[in-house]
Amino acid sequence: MLRFLLNGEVVTLDDVDPTGTTLDLLRYKLRLVGTKEGCSEGDCGACTVLVGELGDGERLVWRALNACILFVPMLDGRAVVTVEHLSRSGAQHPIQREMVERHASQCGFCTPGFVMSLYGRSVGALGTADEPIADVIAGNLCRCTGYGPILAAGAAVPAQWVDDPATVAALKALARSEPLALTYDDPLSGTRRRWFAPRTTDELAALVLAHPEARIVSGATDVGLWVTKQQRVLEDAIWTGEVADLRRMAEDEAGLTIGAGVRYSEARAALARLSPDLGELVRRIGGVQVRNAGTIGGNIANGSPIGDMPPALIALGALLTLRRCDERRRIPLEDYFLAYGRQDRRPGEFVEAVWIPRPRADAIVRVVKLSKRFDSDISAVCAAVALSIEDGVVREARVAFGGMAATPARAPACEAALIGRSWDAAAAERVADALAEDYAPLSDLRGSSAYRLAVAGNVLRRLWLETSEPDEAMSVLAEGLADG
């Protein structure tokens, strides 16, 4: 049995399909049709809802999430707010009123999602504090291009954290004494599906060992698409979202340890303290809804060649902790990725944490994401460079790319062309040419092989301009903007 709060009322569900989506539940069973289905892949934001849970100190933390890739069991013990809740008293919420008065809705299909994202900002939801309104709604798409009035509507309503003692009390009353475990017999396919939600890494380790074929699910920002787009059946799923141990971060002078269950929105500030470029990279990973669900460890474990975070962490020399039962092993992150779709993770083993060493104060760290669209888009190329330069000579160099090979990978020929040599214009050209020895990129809808090699080389050329001749770099950038 699964229980959660929906717009202030307790909902109890029996016989729950573990990979049924919150969007389908809201629209087709509960008839809350204000939550719209646009893309079913977490891109458009039309299905945005707010989900609240108790954080540290029993403070209520709200997150804007995409209901289309949010599996129903992920709601257990939490509070859900849909757009219908905002006008429950018969009066419009200030966000709704501003949207109306500023004519911010055109066809109206995307409007509930925008309203919920802006409402989340107005109550201090995760990932919205001190953020530009344009960033808050970057995960919401409007085909009618009505962004100006929407931004103005959001700006007209102040953002502040709102205390909600009634919801806090209701969530405490819903708290489970035992971890959630569901079994569902699908009458159509005849398959049995199971959902496990352990609460500690010890429980997680035991489950993964007992069910080595089970799919480990974290934020479901990718796995959700397997279900909604590929129609894949996940017979056994182990969700890490209740494992408190995996949600911890520890920061000291040596570096930053991030538990595998830490979400991007939660990790952004700490990553930015290691390097501003890391914080900016996180800002470019999906919209707020995706960053509120996706986890650092899930992105690594998934092993995608175009995952944004692994190249940056590889360039910084990150170490990955893998756990099997009571055994742990620590490996360089680049060694985890073996081939396309294949990682160095043994049966019964899972990603527990990643440790990122703090760059030296004089280190040059650059992370560049190149994509067709600035916001909420998948990388064509993600480049990460970490250099240590003394007296004009490169003493250390780590260069890694995503989107250039079947896995996120370092560039050994490029690094060899740098180390021990002067950091000058000739070096920039030399290392750009060396990339062809390191990578043979594929051509796909995001870019051709030639394009990828060209832009990867240009990242290194631009880095030299930025570090050696900043005035010239700004001139080149201004000229490029004028031409574009």
Architecture of the domain at 2-172, according to CATH? Answer: Roll
Structural class: alpha+beta
| Poorly predicted residue ranges | 473-484
- Characterize the overall form: globular
Could you tell me the CATH topology label of the domain at 2-172: Ubiquitin-like (UB roll)
Report, as a whole number of angstroms, the end-to-end distance.
57 Å
- Tell me the number of helical segments per DSSP (H or I, 4 or more residues long): 18
Tell me, what is the CATH class of the domain at 2-172?
Answer: Alpha Beta
Largest sheet: 5 strands, mixed
Give the helix level as a range of percent. Answer: 25-40%
Please name the fourth-level CATH homologous superfamily of the domain at 2-172: Beta-grasp domain
How much of the polypeptide forms β-strand, as a percent range?
A: 15-25%
Compute the CA-based radius of gyration.
23 Å
Q: In order across it, which strands form the biggest sheet?
A: 2-1-5-3-4
Average pLDDT level: 93
Q: What's the β-strand tally?
A: 20
Q: What can be said about this structure in brief?
A:
The chain is an alpha+beta fold and 484 residues long. It has helices at 22-29, 94-101, 111-122, 133-136, 147-155, 165-174, 201-210, 223-228, 264-274, 276-283, 288-291, 296-302, 309-315, 333-336, 412-418, 425-438, 449-468, 470-483; strands spanning 2-6, 9-13, 48-54, 60-66, 79-81, 180-185, 192-197, 215-217, 236-239, 249-251, 255-259, 319-324, 327-332, 337-339, 342-343, 349-357, 364-370, 381-390, 393-402, 409-410.
3D architecture notes:
This protein is of the alpha+beta class. Among the domains are: 171 residues, Roll (Ubiquitin-like (UB roll)); 113 residues, Enolase-like, domain 1 (2-Layer Sandwich). It contains 18 helices and 20 strands. The strands form 5 sheets. Strands 2-1-5-3-4 form a 5-stranded mixed sheet. A 5-stranded antiparallel sheet has the order 10-11-16-12-13. Helix 17 crosses helix 18. The protein is globular and about 70 Å long. The C terminus is likely disordered.
